[in-house]
Design brief:
disordered N terminus, de novo design (two linked rop proteins), 0% strand, 202 residues, mainly alpha
Length: 202
Amino acid sequence: MWKWLGMVFLAFSLSGCGYNTFQSADEDIKAGWAEVLNQYQRRADLVPNLVNVVKGYAAHEKDVFIQVTEARARVGAIQATPELVNDAAAFQKFIAAQGELTGAISRLLLVAENYPQLKADGLFRDLQAQLEGTENRITVARNRYIEAVKTYNVTVRSFPSNLTAMVFGYTVKPSFTVENEKAIAVPPAVDFSTPAPVPTAP
């Protein structure tokens, strides 16, 4: 009898000091992070086709192609496991790599401004539209992750749930910072409404 009463008391104690909240918040973070990774992977998968299409019209833009390829390789070299969100240094390294890829993709798309035929290519326009849609989904997924981490971190720091956090080893998790947002929040985009002048030989 005392054993059962002790278990009931323990269950109410854990519930009242935030244990269940930690479990729920942690699951929200895992789900949010999985979606962030899914959308980043979707973007990475679009890059090779995009590079190949641009190469067909601007093969001499080698520096841009190399930058995109290397940036994508750096992203792929990082093991983006669920545990990454528990390592602030690894998390920032991952975000920095994604920011580099964003910048490289932007430079690749800007190449199209000097190639009207490339801008008119149906496959290129389709890939650019897919990329823009993916960037928007990345933004949505990232914002959901930010909110999930915010809820979790507030629970870690608040009394009396902070006592539960200390007992069970729960610590704050890293999130996207203002600097991260400046680097990656703006989707790469090119205005295709006005044809660019055709480059002429001197």
